[in-house]
Amino acid sequence: MARTLVKICGITRVADAIAASEAGADAIGLVFYSPSKRCVTPQQAAEIVAALPPLVTVVALFVDAGAEEIHSTLQRVPVDCLQFHGDEPPQFCAQFDRPYLKALRMRPGINVDAIAKGYHGARGLLLDSWQPGVPGGTGQTFDWTSIPARLPRPLVLAGGLDEHNVASAIAAVQPAAVDVSGGVESAPGIKDAARIQRFIAAVHS
Question: Does the structural domain 5-204 have CATH classification 3.20.20.70?
Answer without folding.
Answer: yes
